[in-house]
Write a structure and sequence with these properties.
The chain has 97 residues and is mostly helical. The chain is 45% helix and 8% strand. A two-stranded parallel sheet has the order 1-2.
């Protein structure tokens, strides 16, 4: 078992390397990343919480995808999926989310 902070690119690269070392390939990457650290009134947003939310929710998916894609391209196959919660369709006071 291995854990990583998806907002840290080096940790994402390490997870991908460890998976390839153990399994020899990566067939599926399922990006199901999301935190809620900012909500409420836009005029009261804490910039550090905003940045943290975007780093985890958006940049995190990019970091891990960036390091998995070369493996999948070399294999000439693989699937990356990205999911969202119902908040993508409904009005929630979760501004950065």
């Amino acid at each position: 078992c291995m854990t990583a902070d998806v907002s840290n690119e080096a940790e994402c690269a390490a997870v991908v390397s460890a998976a390839v070392a153990k399994f020899g390939r990566i067939d599926i990457l399922h990006n199901n990343v999301g935190i809620v650290d900012v909500d409420g009134d836009t005029t009261k947003i804490d910039s550090n919480k905003w940045t943290n939310t975007l780093n985890v929710n958006l940049t995190g998916a990019m970091h891990i995808s960036k390091h998995v894609l070369p493996v999948m391209r070399d294999q000439k196959q693989g699937v990356i999926t990205h999911v969202s919660s119902i908040a993508a369709l409904c009005s929630y006071p979760l501004i950065a989310y």
